Amino acid sequence: MSLFWRIFGLNAVVLGTATALLLWAPVTVSVPVVLTEAIILVGGLVVMLVANAALLRWGLAPLERLTKLMTTVDLLRPGQRLPVPAGGEVAELIRTFNAMLDRLEHERATSSARALLAQEAERRRIAQELHDEVGQSMTAILLALKRAADEAPPPLRDELQQAQEITRDSLDEVRRLVRRLRPGVLDDLGLISALTSLTSEFATHTGLRVVRRFDADLPPLEPETELVLYRVAQESLTNVARHADAKRVEVSLRRTDGAVELAIVDDGRGIRAAREGAGIRGMRERALLIGAALDIAPAPAAGTRVRLTAPVPRKQP
Amino acid sequence: MSDPTKIRILLADDHALVRRGVRLILDQEPDLEVVAEAGDGAEAIEMARAHDVDLAVLDIAMPRMTGLQAARELASLKPDLRILMLTMHDNEQYFFQALKAGASGYVLKSVADQDLVAACRAAMRDEPFLYPGAVTALIRNYLDRVRQGEETPDQILTPREEEVLKLVAEGHSSKEIAEILFISVKTVQRHRANLLHKLGLRDRLDLTRYAIRAGLIEP
4-aspartylphosphate: which positions carry it (chain B) (predicted)? Predict the structure, then answer.
């Protein structure tokens, strides 16, 4: 039934009832109006309005649900849809809206995937160039300076040694930059090594106790999946260090049925669910990239638990 | 023919300028001689087959075959060959993987001018050569485990060694520790070596075993 006929029908029911009452009920309306009659008429009007309002509200309820979803829908948490009622224009509207959400979510996922991949590729390229070109040339300079210093007369030697120290410091700086840009361990040695390195470095810098639990028989993962798992662990640990006021963090990587589950659990003061910062939104974007589910919730005892469940594609037989 | 008293070195690095620099530093020493050079891991293996070498100095990041892969191959091909990694990577994961692959030492390129020659000689004496960051990582991890009651030091450290241990764990360099304690850098390095010895981390295999037990690398 179309929206027009629905509203028209509801109004017709109310007006019809009122007319029927006027026709068959023993009521008359005097020409100079009598007080009791006026009260009855006004009462009747109120009843009619209330009935009309109630019926209209019921009739427009699907639209209201639609508006509510429209104002709250979050593309970073896909899968929010409205049930489609039996038929008519409203059903069509909701179906169209659901389809639009499908399209938007898809569009959002692909465009953020493009942006994230481009960003990672760019970082990788810069890191590689810093490592292979700048780093190597500076190593060569360092060695040349050392040789020159060994053979130079004393006053010149001091200066050359100073230059050596400056070169060394710059080389350390380049190395730090490369590390920050790109987890080289991940490419070279794999996810477990990268997470081990990440957690021990984190423990060193923050003084927190970090417990690692990594399953030994993890299925082989796509490079993008590994990178997302790594970045989510990295971001979660950063959050723990910044906000949680925790003593202990547990980082685990487990194999579950058809998926790999990364969990970061701290014993800090937990999250206030109010709003999600850029860091968590970034994690959600990355999770979408590989079709993984990200769940951030209070941990069983105290603190926060971040859990990322990444699907593992089944091997084709 | 090369001088039999000299340590014959194979040098592998994909960057020709670095190779040249390293070669000049090593050839300067009376007991060291670079007899072969390679631009990648696969070439390093060919060179090791073709030449008699005592020591291979390998970069980790190389095209065709990384230094780690080459180290693994070389270790099984020539068990007597000593292997030393020379790399930009300041990360204990690479260090432990290098040990696992059969390398006996690990030198950072940023301290190559100071440490490389000593590392070559240590490798020939069958001693592990650790870069400072690795020592810090090991000691920290060890202290963590002691605190958790997983293991206890079976030998009591001297008060001086304890001081050094604490400073190392806090991430101070040998030079800084020497300044704090008013002792020479050489003394600090001796204390560090003693510490590792007392913690039961004497050689390459000990270190690898320890790293596996502590979950720092996979078995």
Answer: 59
Domain ranges of chain A: 3-71+82-106, 115-181, 184-311
CB contacts of B66 in chain A (<8 Å) are: 188
**Lowest-pLDDT range of A134-138, A191-195, A209-213, B205-209:** B205-209
* Mean pLDDT along residues A225-238: 92
Q: State the fold for domain B7-129.
A: Rossmann fold (3.40.50)
Task: Locate all alpha helices (DSSP H) within chain A, ordered by sequence.
Answer: 3-24, 35-72, 88-129, 136-151, 154-181, 184-189, 191-206, 223-239, 278-289
Q: What is the dihedral of CA B96, B102, B107, B112, to 10 degrees?
A: -160
Query: Residue B153 above 60 pLDDT?
Result: no
Cβ distance B87 to B106 under 8 Å?
yes
Structure tokens at B7: 């340590």
Q: What does DSSP say about strands A304-311 and A293-298: parallel, antiparallel, or unpaired?
A: antiparallel
Answer yes or no: do A136 and B17 touch at CB < 8 A.
Answer: yes
pLDDT digits (tens, 9 = 90+) for A167-177: 999 998 998 88
Q: Nearest CB to A135: which of B68, B88, B144? A: B88
**CB-CB under 8 Å, B92 with A175:** no
Residues 6+ positions from A27 with CB-CB distance below 8 Å: A21, A37, A40
pLDDT at residue A317, rounded to an integer: 47
- The mean per-residue pLDDT over the stretch A233-238 comes to 92
The residues in A 55-94 lying below 8 A from B, measured between CB atoms, are none
Chain B residues inside the 8 Å CB shell of A146 = 25, 113-114
Q: What is the ipTM of this complex?
A: 0.77
Using CA atoms, how far apart are residues A287 and A308, in angstroms rounded to an integer?
8
The mean pLDDT value of chain B amounts to 83
In the structure, what pLDDT confidence band is assigned to residue B44 with cuts at 50, 70 and 90?
A: very high
Mean pLDDT check: name the lowest of A123-137, A234-248, B135-149.
B135-149
In angstroms, the CA B146 to CA B160 distance is 19
Q: Do B21 and A188 touch (CB under 8 A)?
A: no
CA B138, CA B201: separation in Å to the nearest integer? 9
Contact of A151 with chain B, judged by CB distance below 8 Å, is answered with no
Mean pLDDT of A42-63: 85
Inter-chain contact B25–A193, Cβ cutoff 8 Å? no
- CATH topology classification for B133-213: Arc Repressor Mutant, subunit A (1.10.10)
Q: Which of A171, A179, A212 sits opposite B109 (nearest CB)?
A: A171
Find the closest chain B residue to A147 by CA distance. Answer: B25
| Nearest chain B residue to A215, by CA | B218
CATH 3.30.565.10 fits A184-311, yes or no: yes
